[in-house]
Design goal:
607 residues, alpha/beta, ABC transporter transmembrane region fold, six-stranded mixed beta sheet, 10 strands, transmembrane, cell membrane, plasmid, nucleotide-binding
């Protein structure tokens, strides 16, 4: 209890330093090129020089107060022991002023750390988001969306937490150690030397316990990830789990992982919880050494009672930063590793949208000339692909899954660049057409509908911001979804849930088609646009699209051959090659690949 009495008088904990074992031993992710990443990260700090200077001043003043306060306490105790009460009042007032300044600086430091971290991550998050939006579809297709999201959220948040908590703690910790050592040596070099004996024990205990804890904390994180994955799969696929009566098996897998997580978690928490008591024992050993040596020196007249009291406080104040700096270093390493992952995305080349020509006066003649393409080098998808689409013509691409139909659309939209050959619109290579203008004059409806958590009206306006209410309603009527919209609670102002989850799949597809109608494009692309719509609604959409497609070049990809029987030209693809072309009647008469596909769908013939 003697320790509590002595340290309770001046026990200033440096803000931002976490004394508990909660974060100890957590898995540290190390950067590959830490120095380069750190210097690059400093560029974001350079934008906030005034805040950093103010923060540094606040930390310095705060540390000076925390280091100087025990000396004032020492003088007060000496005055009491010597019964010099006349001088005591001045010391107490001075101590009060120091405590007030310390508290004010602590508040300022907390506020400035939060401001600094949020401003830095704001710039970084904005740069990352702008980069992702401007990246090619190819990059986004070839990289895990979850990993990209993790860089935007987890890695950036890691940097934010480190800046707000660890950076100021690192500065204050180093300054506290330096200031404490200086004060201890100034008061009594002999006692300072005795106090430093516990530093070796502190470093040894921290190093070995952290190593043991890191092993279990790392394993716990892995198991926690597995457990979360099991829960996510179960929730997402609950209908399948229930339909096949696999609840017992799912629960068994969950229990197995949960049991192992519990065992590892107990060991991790025991080791983590032992850090505090171990450090407390070491500190108590230090107190015993100071008390014994201080008592001897006091008897010899080398030090006063007040100095001994100050040393007890300094010993505790000296040990804490050493313990915390080990933790902070791990957090900084993890943050730099996260910054490295963020910079890896920022260093990716942006999509090339350049082009000197526009489609403002285009008629819509499309031509594929000897096009070769592969998503992955060595695995060719299109082989010497040739196709001519005249202006205003309705061309359908059909074929089995994997034949390359959607690839043709990806190349036309410049989502990917071809390997060989050329693609032209009105004789102009699409590489020479401004990419934004190309896509502005081309509307595409995909098989997987994408609707945003916004009003119906704003979702329809997404394809053309300057569309009038009259044009929006007209487009909805052509898509046969006007009545459906009017039956929603607020009509066109009704809010849609994320991905339009408050609508049926068919309704979402109708809105997606209506959005393409609003765009009023020169080229219309429908990629399995009616695959999720019932037969009756499909017929209504076909009738509406017949009028819409007049004087527009249209490319239709469909598995349902009933939707493209009136196409001007039907192109049959197989393994990335054109194997047949013609209209519906001529292709049936030829009894080739199209005939086989048709008979499979409508005559039930096994191919």
């Amino acid at each position: 209890m003697a320790e509590d009495k002595n340290t309770s008088q001046v026990n200033m904990k440096i803000p931002g330093m976490k004394g508990g074992p909660r974060n100890r031993g957590a898995a540290v992710e190390k950067p590959v090129n830490g120095k380069e990443t750190f210097m690059r990260l400093m560029q974001y700090f350079a934008k906030e020089i005034p805040v950093i200077i103010a923060l540094f001043i606040a930390v310095v003043v705060m540390v000076v107060c925390s280091v100087y306060a025990p000396k004032l306490q020492s003088q007060a105790i000496d005055y009491i022991s010597l019964r010099k009460f006349n001088n005591l009042n001045h010391i107490l007032i001075f101590m009060l002023v120091v405590y007030i300044i310390y508290s004010i600086c602590t508040f300022i430091q907390t506020r400035l750390s939060a401001i600094l971290s949020q401003r830095i991550v704001k710039h970084m998050r904005q740069d990352l988001f702008d980069k992702i939006v401007g990246m090619s579809v190819k990059y986004l297709d070839q990289h895990s969306h979850g990993d990209i999201m993790s860089r935007m959220t987890n890695d950036v948040e890691n940097i934010s937490n480190t800046v707000s908590q660890s950076m100021s703690s690192l500065f204050s910790g180093v300054l506290t150690i330096i200031g404490t050592v200086i004060m201890m040596v100034a008061l009594s070099p002999q006692l300072a030397l005795c106090s430093c004996t516990t530093v070796i024990l502190t470093i040894f205990a921290t190093k070995n316990l952290s190593k043991a804890m890191r092993k279990f904390y790392s394993r716990r994180q892995v198991l926690l990830g597995q457990l979360n994955g099991t829960v996510e799969e179960m929730v997402t696929g609950i209908k399948t789990v229930t339909a096949f009566d696999r609840q017992e098996n799912v629960c068994g897998d969950f229990d197995k992982t949960s049991d192992e997580l519990t065992k590892v978690g107990i060991k991790a928490e025991i080791l983590g919880g032992s850090m505090g008591p171990v450090m407390n024992v070491i500190n108590n050993i230090g107190f015993v050494i100071i008390a014994a040596a201080g008592g001897y020196f006091a008897i010899k007249g080398y030090v006063s009672i007040g100095v001994i009291s100050a040393f007890i406080v300094y010993a505790k104040q000296f040990g804490r930063p050493i313990d915390e700096l080990a933790n902070i270093w791990g957090q900084i390493q993890t943050a730099i590793a996260g910054a490295e992952r963020v910079f890896a995305v920022l260093d990716e080349p942006s999509e090339d949208k350049s082009g000197e020509f526009t489609m403002d006066n285009s008629t819509g003649n499309i031509e594929f000339n000897h096009v070769d393409f592969s998503y992955i080098p060595g695995k060719q998808v299109l082989h010497d692909f040739n196709l001519k689409v005249k202006a205003g013509q309705k061309v359908a691409l059909v074929g089995s899954t994997g034949s390359g139909k959607t690839t043709v659309v990806n190349l036309l939209m410049r989502f990917y660049d071809i390997d060989n050959g050329s693609i032209t619109i009105d004789g102009v290579n699409i590489k020479d057409i401004d990419c934004e203008n190309l896509r502005k004059n081309t509307a595409i409806v995909l098989q997987d509908t994408v609707l945003f958590a916004d009003t119906v009206k704003n979702n329809l306006l997404y394809s053309r911001q300057d569309a009038t209410d009259t044009e929006i309603i007209a487009a909805a009527k052509k898509a046969n979804c006007h009545n459906m919209i009017m039956h929603l609670p607020d009509g066109y102002d009704s809010m849609l849930a994320k991905d339009g989850q408050n609508l049926s799949q068919g309704q979402r597809q109708l809105l997606s088609i209506a959005r393409a109608f609003v765009a009023s494009p020169k080229i219309l692309i429908l990629d399995e646009a009616t695959s999720s719509v019932d037969t009756r609604t499909e017929k209504k959409i076909q009738d509406a699209m017949t009028n819409l497609m007049k004087n527009r070049t249209s490319l239709i990809i469909a598995h349902r051959l009933s939707t493209i029987q009136d196409a001007d030209v039907i192109v049959v693809m197989d393994n990335g090659r054109v194997v047949e072309t013609g209209n519906h009647e001529s292709l049936l008469s030829a009894k080739g690949r199209y005939y086989e596909l048709y008979m499979t769908q409508f005559a039930g013939k096994a191919i």
